[in-house]
Amino acid sequence: DAKTTQPNSMESNEEEPVHLPCNHSTISGTDYIHWYRQLPSQGPEYVIHGLTSNVNNRMASLAIAEDRKSSTLILHRATLRDAAVYYCILRPSFAYGNKLVFGAGTILRVKS
Amino acid sequence: DSGVTQTPKHLITATGQRVTLRCSPRSGDLSVYWYQQSLDQGLQFLIQYYNGEERAKGNILERFSAQQFPDLHSELNLSSLELGDSALYFCASSAADTQYFGPGTRLTVL
To answer: What is the DSSP string of B62-93?
Structure first.
């Protein structure tokens, strides 16, 4: 399984944008970049995923570097509810229905 | 609400005992996954079932087993429990690339 590297923790102020980085220098051409988050006392929750192009959805944006060796999850306006552990995960595109390999993730703290 | 349900929410038992955790996937999802989350190991994949058949195995101990029934619900059986089995156990289901996780079962082995 290809490895990702994320900062252990980050802090943000409420209502401000947050950029969560992820390095994946050994990514292969068939790997999708997935982001999940885990709020306190809950199961992980899907956030967003992409392959090459930047992606937007109602929760966040995903910016993928041109060489695909890194990506950034962008929360446009952090709220207290966004305080969670954020996981960046690589998943082969041919592995439909495959397992998720979780690393340690980034603990995001949001200050009011 | 992800649509995935797990019962029970909490389970407290003694070493050497056997327990069964239950998972109901989202309506229509054929794949069910089980994960274990402990403080020292993080979130680890245990096993996957697809439409009743075992599809993939991860770091699942021999004392643990699972099955998926014709109605697609799944059960994870943990036997000869040890203190180290205390953890959160999550079930997830998927129809495509996204996995939807249940709220988990917190198992405490005393």
So the answer is: TTEEEEE-TTS-EEEEE-S--GGG-EEEEEEE
